């Protein structure tokens, strides 16, 4: 073992970053990636410009000249972040491929800690901790990205891709990200990786700082997008419990509204009301996204998966309204 517990024979790593019209954020992201403790000759950075029109290419040319490690950038027409990641994967040399986003800043030991997570061949992917970057507004504090919960979730485990790494051979086995997803592709990848028998692992010391949405409108759009992604999962996987999710969310929405009189009685009612308000907004626009995606977005019929995936069946059973009411309210149903 070398410094900080790093393996002597460090594997080659590729870092793939999709970007679209956020050149200023991209600069901070790249600066953090240039400052990694991982051996500079053992990692490369691949930026995929997803059709930006804000001068991103000029930034990439500038950073290519001062990169301390291998650096390349590719440009495609705007097809979404998952299609961009696939282009990056196809041009990557690493046996481990790490992903982050242009609105993230990586801790200097980020790569080192992610790689350390691959302790055996059964681990297909490793996800690190995501911390809000300098949150100042309540929306930023509310919009947490809990990687540990995503990996241990009753929902088929998945990695939040702004801080994730997969073995290259695993990505090849599952066929990369599904380019038909604009949202929900993280969940889709988790379903397919775990379906193949691989485990996902949490690496709490592999940290990125994420710049959360700062406005209510940005927050609402994000929740709506999550809902459309959920709907697409329901169209791709025959046994995905979309109906059960929809009913459960309506139940949770009602519970939040019913709890308002009780929250008003609390001493710290301002914070309580803010959380209730954001809960209601989050659930409501997620539901709108599900409905919109179901009615207006199509998924290719020849790509629909009709297999009985065990994790989806277990998930359906776990979120049945009868079980949720029994567990949460502890009444006999």
- Main sheet summary: 8 strands, mixed
**Low-confidence runs of at least 5 consecutive residues:** 1-7
In angstroms, what is the radius of gyration? 21 Å
Q: How are the strands of the largest sheet arranged?
A: 3-2-1-4-7-6-8-5
- CATH topological fold name of the largest domain: Spore Coat Polysaccharide Biosynthesis Protein SpsA, Chain A
* Helix/sheet category: alpha/beta
How many domains? The number is 2
According to CATH, what is the class of the largest domain?
Alpha Beta
Approximately what portion of the residues adopt beta-strand conformation?
A: 15-25%
Spell out the helices and strands N to C: EHEHEHEEHEHHEHHEHHHHHH
CATH architectural arrangement of the largest domain: Alpha-Beta Complex
CATH superfamily of the largest domain: Spore Coat Polysaccharide Biosynthesis Protein SpsA, Chain A
Helix content: 40-55%
Provide mean pLDDT, rounded: 91
Summary tags:
2 domains; globular; 14 helices; 333 residues; Spore Coat Polysaccharide Biosynthesis Protein SpsA, Chain A
Describe this structure in words.
By secondary structure, the chain is of the alpha/beta class. It folds into 2 domains: 3-213, Spore Coat Polysaccharide Biosynthesis Protein SpsA, Chain A (Alpha-Beta Complex), CATH 3.90.550; 217-329, no CATH class. Helices cover 47% and strands 17% of the residues. The chain is built from 14 helices and 8 strands. It has helices at 23-34, 56-66, 81-90, 110-116, 138-142, 147-152, 168-174, 185-195, 216-236, 242-258, 260-264, 269-296, 310-318, 321-329; strands at residues 13-19, 43-49, 70-75, 96-100, 104-106, 123-132, 163-167, 199-210. The protein has an 8-stranded mixed sheet with strand order 3-2-1-4-7-6-8-5, sandwiched between helices. Helix 1 (23-34) links the parallel strand 1 (13-19) and strand 2. Helix 9 crosses helix 12 and helix 10 (242-258) packs antiparallel against helix 12. The longest helix is centred in the last third of the chain and has 28 residues, at 269-296. It starts with 12 loop residues before the first strand and ends with a helix. The relative contact order is 0.11. Mean pLDDT is 91; it is low at 1-7.
